[in-house]
Amino acid sequence: MANKVKPEELKGSSIYQEKRRTIYSDWFMKNKGYIISENDADKYYVYSLRFIGSLVILFFVIMFTGNQLYGYGAGILFYAVTTLMFYFLFLPKLAVISNFNKPKKDNFINELAKKQNQQTLTVTVILSVLIGTVIIIYAHKNNFDQTAMIAYYIIAVMAYGYGVMNILAFIKKKREYQ
């Protein structure tokens, strides 16, 4: 099977590109970095989606069982198990840099402004607002209990927040080209 993801394509707050190497180092690891090779990039990418996977499982379990407790339990269990697998099964197999000094990273809005064009930022803003609005309408139409309503509102606020970040990136990008 051919690799779909190249190490240099990996992104995230814990990913650093240095000397043509991709290095993983999060805030748990003070001066330790793990080199992600061509063979490990796909596996890292799958593990990097563990939070999204836990949300998908949470919603599907709630949708099919109607029990929120089962949904939250399944989502949290999935996230916990995949995180433990990531730290105890995946990372120990990678080459280690013992005295890795993390370079300072740019903030998220600057990264968006550098990497996305204005059309992509505009479409992302529109979709974020649309998704947030649809989530709120869906929650109100179905008369969920207070816990579910809070969860839906949190997700909607996150969608709106992502839209705001893209607006700020759009403004920054527009200022750079003036």
Report the uncertain regions. Answer: none
Distance between the termini: 46 Å
The count of helical stretches stands at 6
**In percent, how helical is the residue content?**
55-70%
Could you tell me the mean pLDDT? 88
Radius of gyration equals 19 Å
Number of strands: 4
Percent of sequence in beta strands: 5-15%
Shape: flat
Order the strands across the largest sheet as they lie in space. 1-2-3-4
Order of helices and strands: EEEHHHEHHH
Largest sheet: 4 strands, antiparallel
Q: What structural class results from the helix and strand content? A: alpha+beta
Number of domains: 2
Q: What are the SSEs and their pairings?
A:
Layout: E1 15-18, E2 21-24, E3 33-36, H1 41-48, H2 50-65, H3 68-90, E4 95-97, H4 108-115, H5 118-141, H6 146-176
Antiparallel strand pairs: 1-2, 2-3, 3-4
Helix pairs in contact: 2-3, 4-6, 5-6
